[in-house]
Amino acid sequence: MKSPALPTVFIIDDDRGMRQAIQDLVESVGLHAEAFATAQDFLSGQRTGEPSCLVLDVRLPQMSGLDFQRQLAETGVQIPIVFITAHGDIPMSVRALKSGAVEFLTKPFRDQDLLDAIQQALQRDRAARQQQAENCALQGRYQSLSAREREVMTLVVSGMLNKQIAFEIGASEATVKVHRGHLMQKMAAGSLVELVRMADKLKLSPSK
Hints:
Distance between the termini: 49 Å
Helix content: 55-70%
Number of strands: 5
Shape: elongated
Oligomer: single chain
Number of helices: 9
Strand order of the largest sheet: 2-1-3-4-5
Strand content: 5-15%
């Protein structure tokens, strides 16, 4: 049984000996590893909610590693990839890295090079998950605003003064101040600058 908080390294390589060697290496540094012979086997399994990465062989039966990388991107599966191959070339590595791979290692590679690439991939996944969590929290705070508060927020971040907003929405300036105070509190914005940054992340515009 692995710890619930332990990162997982998924390994896809049709060479059984290589799969086992990488799994043993990964587990020797305290990480959890799961190995698969094909991309299809990986897809049929279940991913956990912990940080993870994929050590992927370029040459696989049924579907190449590069094609699998593209399929993952097209289906919205975001997992950092470390490519390994015994038959790599420069165009292949450039294609993989341009498509977002963390590293492209040619067999035989040093154990430490693979471990370093895996740690980099896991850190990238942690950062992506943190960003996603922050974005979800921001969306949640925005959804807690009333329709009028959202309207006022959009006008505030566009640079309008309270009296201008009051005229725009047909309310008193005092009412606008109340709405503005409420939305600043609900959005957990300590300043107008923070609110503008939040609006930018939410992709708000005056037309919304």
